[in-house]
Amino acid sequence: MQMLPDLQGRVALVTGAARRTGRVIATKLAAAGASVLVNAMSSRAEAEALVADIEREHGAGRAMAHIADVSDPQAVRAMVAACVERFGGLDILVNNASIRLHAALDATTPEQWRRVLQVTLDGSFYCAQAAAPHLSRSGQGVVINIGGVVSHTGARNAAAIMTAKTGLEGLTRALAFDLGPNVRVNCVAPASMTSPDDPPERARTLSGFYQHNNVPLGRPGSVDEVTDAVLTLCGPAWRYMTGQVIHINGGVYFSS
Question: Looking at residue 192, what DSSP letter applies?
Fold first, then answer.
């Protein structure tokens, strides 16, 4: 079991937090002591259920749900303002919201292409831009972008998401320069991970891939293992790390 960093008194905003990786990140941030804004684009019921779970476990007033499309800069500014008004500041931003389109090149429409980039890349920029003054005032501000191993290994039928995730790594380095020395900015790049929400066939498919392709650790990872890296980056243990990409993939990257 991971020893959680002490994040008592810290405030976190997690985009795309109603499901899968974002949900686990928000849950563990709260368990470490942070107050959490749970963002979702449309999944209000799931976001509010997560807030209820957090408050049942960790006390009333520890979380809030906010429905906003991160590709809308005005909606993002309103979300950040709501977070600061509710919790008194902002210390941690996790840019997790993403659209993972898998489509052949000739089947990808201009609207699909733009939408993937708008949510995954533009949204991360807008969130960082709106959060930057508050993160700087915090004195211990952290931005974590959730990238993907696909930026390094490549994949078929993934032009839009590969482009967006690769851009996210460039944004990570740019923000590290622009927001230092008061804010650390890093990127966590996972491979495809299992989640408790997954149907059984997904876990079997991923396990078969890892074994067939001789991946060193021989198994797929879980969203909990991605979250462990995120939580470590939020704490003091890696306080001299910024502008980096942390690979969580069981060896997929170097064995591909």
Answer: S
What are 53-91's pLDDT values in tens digits?
A: 999 999 888 999 999 999 999 999 999 999 999 999 999
Say which amino acid occupies 32.
A
- Is 93 strand, coil or helix? strand
Taking 3-state DSSP, the helix, strand and coil percentages for the chain, each rounded to the nearest 5, stand at 50, 15, 35
Average pLDDT over residues 94-104: 90
CA angle 144–186–153, rounded 5-degree value: 100
> Is 36 or 254 the better-scoring residue by pLDDT?
36
User: Which is nearest to 4 in space by CA: 36, 31, 38, 35?
Assistant: 31
Contact between 169 and 185 (Cβ < 8 Å) = no
CA distances from 120 to 16, 52, 71, 211 (A): 10, 27, 8, 30
Strand ranges inside 15-158, DSSP E: 35-40, 63-67, 92-95, 141-146
Residue 115 and residue 123 in contact, taking contact as beta carbons nearer than 8 Å: no
* Rounded Cα distance, 168 and 162, in Å: 10
DSSP state, 8? T
Each residue of 191-228: pLDDT tens digit? 877 777 777 776 667 666 666 666 777 777 788 889 99
Joined tokens for residue 67: 């429905």
**What's the full length of the chain, in residues?**
256
Q: What angle do CA 119, 161, 22 make, to 5 degrees?
A: 55
DSSP, collapsed to helix, strand or coil, labels residue 84 as helix
